[in-house]
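Full entry
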Amino acid sequence: MDESIPGGGARAVIVVSSHVARGSVGNRAAVFALETLGFPVWAVPTVILPWHPGHGRATRIVPPTEQFSALLADLARAPWLGEVGAVLSGYLGEAGQAQAIAYLVKAVKAKNPAALYVCDPVMGDSGGLYVPEATAVALRDRLMPLADIATPNRYELQWMAAVALPDIRSTIAAALDAGPATMLVTSAPAMMAGGTGNILLDGNQALMAEHRLIERPPNGLGDLTAAVYLARILSGQLPAKALQTTTAAVYEILARTAKRGGDELQLETDAQSLSHPMAMVQLRHLLHPGRDRRA
């Protein structure tokens, strides 16, 4: 096994997130993206919904904690665990699921030390938390410390950091203090007027990919971004290139969906955008305050 390749050469990804019958959020977005880009997926639902809650109240099926934990324990001892090069977790149905996910991540890494864990701490947006505080705390305290890569949006990072993040400088400082070696912060402040950005921070660099803001976007952009960025890294792209091509793909799909008036991301129509995006995004190199701290 070549551990110089992200994931140690293993290509399967375990994705643990929400499942909706209609729409392109949670596992529906992440699994489609990863499989389209050539990665086999083991998909685990944390909650089952007929549609995204933003479309209106509906039935919510959450697996009992004991059964959910038993299922993930089965995966942790599966004879095919060596196939797994990464775990991606997103929306949790309830706080107790964090412990089972942590157990699975540790088992994957014990089998394949080069495996990556991506934590998308789905908990809120500009309107505040939309999960119970206990779930947000479990994401922050149980899963974020295990992550190699975390992909919060600015509002989730703001809640975890317990400080306001009105600008790029404060967002970078909070990401640097958050813990994971690589932070990809979505919905970040941009330099471009009328724009929005994704900020990538690791031990060596701070980068921002920005594009025009599209008002009232469909849900699922964060789920899609986490999955596509992971696929880029597992494919061997360097972080700067991965940030640029991920942002371009997600923005292109968003723009095309918005032009059609879609209320959900139309991934099946725009699958080509995942692998060969044509949209132009601005990539900027930002000041990395961590270098001064290490000096």
Summary: Residues 14 and 42 are 5 Å apart (CA to CA).
